Amino acid sequence: MLTVDIDVGVVERKNLSQSNELNN
Fold first, then answer.
1. Cα–Cα dist 2/7, whole Å
2. From which domain of life does this come (predicted)?
3. Is the pTM of this model over 0.70?
């Protein structure tokens, strides 16, 4: 369960970084 939460957090961070790059 904990590993799944960590994976979700990593995916969210990746999505945020990608959106930031697109915005910039």
1. 9
2. Eukaryota
3. no
What CA–CA distance (Å, rounded) separates 16 from 22? 10
Q: Where are the alpha helices (DSSP H) in the chain?
A: 2-23
What one-character DSSP code corresponds to residue 1? -
The CA angle 11-21-15, to the nearest 5 degrees, is 15
Per-residue pLDDT of 1-24, as tens digits, reads 678 888 888 999 998 888 888 777
